[in-house]
Specification:
The chain is of the alpha/beta class. The chain has twelve helices and twelve strands. The protein has a six-stranded parallel β-sheet, sandwiched between helices. It has a four-stranded antiparallel β-sheet with strand order 8-9-10-11. The radius of gyration is 20 Å and the shape is globular. Bound molecules: pantoate.
Length: 311
């Protein structure tokens, strides 16, 4: 496995792989790799010949300087994980390599970024879509893999790739969870023991909303109230948002009918966590007059300690 810090260096490796007739798989990350990233890498490894993982903490997508400064960095540990999973090359540029001068060109995806995290983290998605565009231009992958935990990011990248005719397939990878339901995140290491105990309440809140929908609640406000009650019962958690949105444009739905995303963000102490659950109709099973609960099902996830695909 090669670790490359320069744009010219990674381009040379891509050229060699292409000359050998290989397809390029790409997993963009900010490092601090965990089992969730391992799932991305494993899926990418199976889907392409030459696999590149980028590790770059992108300053452009942080709305708070302190969050950027304390983002965990551990290249040796990340490299060991990548090596163990058959990655061919890591692209780990310094900020000066990616942004040598002032960045005057940005990519903005409209509407998909209005709500949820976009509403609370000004400039975040502009930073993400700009760096992902730059990375795609550098690596020129056939397939790029993004986690479903960052569902709005996935929707933004998909829309950007479609709107800008980027020749890359965006592949979603299911969220990996701890046994108690907490979605794996590089930010989890910041939680104190008490906060870690409280953190799964975010997922429980999403499940409460999902249960309400599966039980027939078409009114989003009624379903959301169930989740907000769960969060209110956990004093260490401060809810930022809890929304039921359309899976593509991330706008709140007036009534729950088709596939929706139940998405939440919450602060646990000084750590911000996000999570989501997707609910969709069971294909072809819509008997006349059926309650929503008869026809809606949660999409599965992969538990860190099991291979079960069921919630
Ligand atoms: O999801 C992440 O780790 C980042 O947002 C990404 C996609 C690598 C862009 O910096």
């Amino acid at each position: 496995m090669r670790i490359v810090k320069s744009i010219d260096g990674i381009r040379a490796l891509v050229r060699e792989a292409r000359a050998a007739g290989e397809t390029i798989g790409f997993v963009p990350t900010m490092g601090a790799l965990h089992a969730g990233h391992a799932a991305l890498i494993d899926q990418a490894r199976a889907g392409a010949d030459f696999l590149i993982v980028s590790i770059f903490v992108n300053p452009l997508q942080f709305d708070r300087e302190d969050d950027y400064q304390r983002y965990a960095k551990n290249l040796p540990a990340d490299a060991a994980l990548c090596e163990s999973r058959g990655v061919d090359a890591i692209f780990a540029p310094e900020a000066a390599e990616m942004y040598p001068g002032s960045q005057r060109t940005h990519v903005d995806v409209e509407r998909v970024t209005d709500r949820l995290c976009g509403q609370f983290r000004p400039g975040h998605f502009r930073g993400v879509s700009t760096v992902v565009t730059k990375l795609f231009n550098i690596v020129q992958p056939d397939k790029a893999y993004f986690g479903e935990k960052d569902a709005q990011q996935l929707a933004v990248v998909r829309r950007m790739a479609a709107d800008l005719n980027m020749p890359v397939e965006i592949v979603p990878v299911p969220t990996v969870r701890e046994a108690d339901g907490l979605a794996l995140s590089s930010r989890n290491v910041r939680l104190t023991a008490e906060e870690r105990r409280a953190a799964p309440a975010l997922y429980r809140a999403l499940l409460a909303v999902a249960n309400a929908i599966e039980g027939g609640a078409c009114d989003p406000e009624r379903a959301k109230a169930e989740g907000l009650a769960v969060l209110a019962g956990e004093p260490l958690i401060r809810s930022e948002y809890l929304e039921i949105v359309d899976v593509e444009d991330m706008q709140p739905v007036a009534s729950v009918r088709g596939p929706v995303l139940v998405a939440g963000a919450a602060w646990v102490g000084s750590t911000r966590l996000i999570d989501n659950v997707r609910i969709e109709p069971i294909a072809g099973s819509q008997p006349a007059g059926a309650a929503v609960g008869d026809t809606m099902i949660r999409r599965g996830f992969r538990n860190q300690t099991s291979t079960s695909n069921e919630v």
